[in-house]
């Protein structure tokens, strides 16, 4: 395995470990074990834990911005950006590390990258859709709501509390199977179940995808 391939392997392992333990709760030794290398090797390649997390966080931010930037401008861009976000939801580690980075925003490096990330996504939305600043704000806000619900494990507990079921169903909409197919099956058992039909609910055919660009 080449040095570059080993580097990517360690970054992949670090992403999973940081997603599970956060920045404060993760050590370079844990990353090394997950990657199948020695802890001194990780330190030689990346330096401190701070430098390693900064690289993992930046790598994730670049991946997300690149995915949004690949959407062509035009009338369908809002829906395409929403669909892109739904596809990103499938990688739970990616979104959890992003949230850990935001939570550590008091750190000058992590805070600066977090602000840069938000501005980049905001600008991409406006550029691709031609939408208003308020619409771009709502796109980001919806994305953060979904990230937060994922971070607290809301989809996994979809059927445990009818109130939580309503919130998850409302927030994720048609994107629910992307994060937890079992939760969607629970919600489709019928009236009285979390996510089932209830008074005032719109026609399912009219439901919008999560992070809708409309």
Radius of gyration: 19 Å
Strand content: under 5%
Shape: globular
Q: How far apart lie the N and C ends?
A: 46 Å
How helix-rich are the residues, as a percent range? 55-70%
Major sheet: none
Low-confidence stretches: 187-209
Secondary structure topology:
Elements: H1 3-21, H2 28-35, H3 39-46, H4 49-69, H5 77-89, H6 92-103, H7 108-129, H8 133-151, H9 162-172, H10 176-179, H11 181-187
Helix pairs in contact: 1-2, 1-4, 1-6, 2-3, 4-6, 4-7, 6-8, 7-8
Would you write up a description of this structure?
The termini are far apart. Helix 1 (3-21) packs across helix 2, helix 6 crosses helix 8 and helix 7 crosses helix 8 (133-151). With 214 residues, this protein is mainly alpha-helical. It is 67% helix and 0% strand. It is globular and about 50 Å long. Pfam families: TetR_N. It comes from Oerskovia merdavium. Residues 4-64 form the HTH tetR-type domain. Keywords: DNA-binding. Residues 181-214 are annotated as: Disordered.
């Amino acid at each position: 395995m080449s040095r570059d391939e080993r580097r990517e392997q360690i970054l992949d392992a670090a992403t999973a470990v940081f997603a599970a333990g956060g920045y404060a709760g993760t050590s370079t030794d844990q990353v090394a074990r997950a990657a199948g290398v020695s802890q001194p090797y990780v330190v030689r390649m990346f330096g401190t834990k701070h430098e390693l997390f900064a690289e993992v966080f930046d790598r994730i931010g670049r991946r997300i911005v690149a995915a949004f930037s690949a959407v062509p401008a035009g009338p369908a861009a809002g829906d395409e950006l929403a669909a892109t976000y739904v596809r990103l939801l499938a990688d739970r580690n990616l979104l959890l590390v992003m949230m850990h980075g935001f939570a550590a925003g008091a750190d000058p490096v992590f805070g600066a990258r977090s602000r840069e990330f938000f501005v980049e996504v905001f600008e991409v939305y406006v550029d691709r859709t031609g939408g208003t600043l308020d619409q771009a704000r709502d796109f980001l806000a919806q994305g953060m709501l979904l990230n937060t619900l994922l971070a607290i494990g809301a989809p996994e507990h979809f059927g445990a509390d009818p109130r939580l079921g309503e919130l998850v169903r409302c927030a994720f909409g048609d994107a629910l199977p992307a994060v937890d197919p079992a939760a969607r099956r629970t919600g489709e058992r019928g009236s009285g179940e979390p996510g089932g039909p209830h008074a005032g609910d719109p026609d399912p055919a009219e439901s919008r995808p999560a992070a809708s660009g409309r």
